[in-house]
Amino acid sequence: MDEIDVIVIGAGPAGESAAARCADGGLSVALVEQRLVGGECLYYGCIPSKALIRPGDVLAAARRVPGAAQALTGRLDAREAFARRDELVGEWDDAAQLPAFEEKGVLFVRGPGRIADDRVVDVSTSDGGTRRLTARRAVVLATGTSPAIPPIDGLRRGQVWDNQDATAVKELPERLLVIGGGFIGAEMTQAFRRLGCTQVTVVEEAERLLVAEEPFAGEQVREAFEAEGVDVVTGVRVTAVEQRDTDGPLTATLGDGRRVTADEILVAVGRRAETEGLGLEAIGLTPGGFVEVDGWMRATGVPGGWLYAVGDCNGRALLTHMGKYQGRLAADVIMGKDVPESTTVVPRVTFTDPQVCAVGLTERQARERGLPVRTVTTGTGDVDGAHVLGVGITGTCKLVVDDDRKVLVGATFVGPGMQELLHSATIAIVGELPLATLWQAVPPFPTVSEVWLRLLEAYGL
Question: Which coenzymes or cofactors are required (predicted)?
């Protein structure tokens, strides 16, 4: 039995952040992982998906610029894009991830970890044995999530793609059907169309794509998709999937009677917590769902406050950057630092073209909370900085203002390459900066950040 200060189960970004910060603070740390160190984000999520998205974005940007557009004479090379993806994910080998933890003195244990008792974790080892770890201070769960498969008649796991299959693809299908128009479904829809799929269809049960964001965001993404030849179906669900031959095409039946035939179907309808098999029942918690936590990432209902849950497995914000933040926060609490509760301000980017970049509350969410809301909008292409970038830059920028306090509570930017505008909005919302103070922050000319000036002018400053 090994006795150690902190045991972290799960070596994705959230777990890595918690383990590294605790180790840097002088605590002894054990990091337990049964799969790849680096987690979903590095091997099947953020990094490979953006590697597949990037070539199409570059070509689209060049096509908007007269002079550069005329230089484009060839087609996108999907195989080269796949090769770059493989390089970025290290060929799905985590050997390069381990030295950084070894240098910090972190004990790495390969295998599935299971809570056996208060502060006790058993790890099943490759030789069939069990290694027992005991935490003097805390156990941190950072086990992430896995794709959810909806209850559709005829739909079977292994028959269709999830995000891991899509981002690790080696050959393009001619026809692709995407079920789900959230950020994963939307990103992969456009990426595969631009990589060379002949026919791409996306089906979203809600009335629009990206339903969690401002309504104009989903509509503008839809317009872009349809302009590129993507078939977008909203307000309809898939009711059945049929495959006549084992290796043959699949046919999906929609709720309105339409049928869509595809060589592959990507299911992107949500995520489920990876908490089954963690032994939560041994400490009185229910396995299989998200672990409820307080504002300092401590699992509720666990006497002594020794169990923490960070990242996707707590269900608060299924985003890599938020998981890393939560890992750092939990580590600080474990080390006895006096830290404020976790922020509820969540920045998010959907890497479609146009990009949808948002932080804080949508107008609807703000009104549902009873805030005195005032909103202002401006066209992304209405500033000179957008004209410099090329022809046909479109999109909408919107601020949601608490009109009593005169501070931002939400912001959305839609347009090509808008992600770098988002952090300024995040700082403004988290810092509760008065609009009069933001008016003193002068955007450089000619940049797209001048939309800030237009928005504040629209508010009346």
Answer: FAD
